[in-house]
Amino acid sequence: MSDRSPETRDPEAATAVQRIAAFAQGASPAALTPEVRRTFKRNILDSIGCAIAAVPGRPFAALRDQFAEYRANGGCTLIGGGQTSPDQAALYNSSLVRYVDLLDSYMSPGGLCHPSDNFGVVLAAAEHAKASGEEFLLALAVAYEIQCRITAVVPVMAKGFNHAIQLAVSAAAACGKLFGLTTEEIAHAIAIATIDNVSLTCVHAEPVSQWKGFSPGMTGMRAIYAASLAKRGFTGPSNLFEGPNGLERMFAQDIPVDWADPSLEVVLQTVMKKYCSLIHGQPVLEATLALRRSYDLGASDVESVVCDTFQTGYDIAGGGAFGSKDTPRTKEQADYNMKYLIAAALLDGQVGPAQLEEARVRADDAQDLLSRVTVRPDRSFTERYPLELNARITIRTRDGRTLEREQRGYEGGLDDPLSWDRTVEKFNWLSEPFADESLRWRIVRAVEDLETGSVRDLMALLAEVRAKATYPARHPGIQ
């Protein structure tokens, strides 16, 4: 932490929120290189696929009931149909993206963030502002950059806080840019949105609750509302970071980000998922499924499983610091439980939305097999994290064989990025029950041609998505 007191700071120097606001205000489409644009379209399509897969989720029917009770007129579209106010659309669509736990991630030594947590709120702000696709893309790039730059220099989760804190900063800045706020107004929007959004890492601890997946949506809801308040003259604490009892004191460190750097390339450092699991489980599941296929294993062949992983993966999802993983009962517990995820992969040959259904989690075969899975930390894997996410799976069969696979990285990681074609395949897998082939391809083309269209055109397509499974689901899931 800085030893400078507020009194010793240059009173003329811009505060951190002012510098972040200036970064957002000054962001230009010229910074979106062709590679960055292609990567953003991949992540955008991925976010849409994740959102569509979640539309039948029970919590979203409850949210629609909530919206009806707290009825608010507005022209913002809910994915799956219906319209509401911008803040409620931000909550709903952001939560859809997070729900099946297939969204993108940005890794850092002290934690991570999910940059696509910004997607639903920036989408709502863009639709409300009648923004072009190009304006939406630029605002989303601003949000990604802000959230990830903070995550890169502050080990937020290691210090006991949840990454929704930096999401409040990024989402408010992007909304402010879309709403045409001045630099000063964007700074106030950031301060208002963040000051009451101190989020704790215990949201990830056992028993994992539904709020793990909805906290980012609530953060986005506050962010878009804060930007609207700032537009109307509301002010927030300008010394949010460096002032007395600000974020620097809370994190016990300086937050050294160069906000004068105009680049918008952090999306190139995001990683993607193939399986409904926290990011730490991706190499684990890739190794498990590879063993299952290579040896034509059935669950009845398995005597026991040992999973060696890095310390953070063990702590969060293997039974370490975040609590026991022996008796998962809910969807939220399942996608944060390596024991269950390994069992589901061996039983079903896939870990997709169906494997997170409560009935599947509680089934006797899943509970029996997960009881024979051991997860433990491996020092060599820990030393390589987060540059590498590695795992080793060792299966002991009932006929006495020992089968082992060490997984160095995974498809979707930085060394093996998920391609556009694989992302389209993932999108079709997730959206197939809720959109016919024609609608799916129209959505893909709208994302491909985002710069030449409007956000309202895209939202009109997403409104056609069915809120219940309607069409045959034939895709086996990406392997």
Describe the 3D structure:
It is a single chain. The protein has helices at residues 16-26, 34-54, 58-69, 86-99, 119-128, 133-153, 164-178, 183-195, 211-231, 247-251, 282-294, 311-317, 331-334, 338-348, 358-362, 364-370, 379-384, 420-431, 437-448, 455-462, and strands at residues 76-77, 83-84, 106-108, 111-113, 302-309, 373-377, 390-397, 402-408. The protein is an alpha+beta fold. The strands form 3 sheets. A 4-stranded mixed β-sheet has the order 6-5-7-8. β7 (390-397) and β8 (402-408) form a beta hairpin.
- Taken in chain order, the helices and strands follow as HHHEEHEEHHHHHHHEHHHHHEHEEHHH
Q: Which CATH architecture of the largest domain is right? A: Orthogonal Bundle
Q: How confident is the prediction overall: mean pLDDT?
A: 94
In one word, what is the shape? globular
CATH class of the largest domain: Mainly Alpha
Our Rg estimate from Cα atoms comes to 22 Å
CATH fold-level label of the largest domain = 2-methylcitrate dehydratase PrpD
**Main pleated-sheet profile:** 4 strands, mixed
Describe the oligomeric state of these chains in a short phrase: single chain
N-end to C-end Cα span? 46 Å
The structure class reads: alpha+beta
**Can you identify the CATH superfamily of the largest domain?**
2-methylcitrate dehydratase PrpD
Total strand count, please? 8
Q: What is the number of independent domains?
A: 2
- What level of helicity do the residues show? 40-55%
Segments where pLDDT lies below 50 for 5+ residues?
1-9
> Count of DSSP helices?
20
The percentage of residues in β strands lies in 5-15%
* Spatial order of strands in the largest sheet: 6-5-7-8
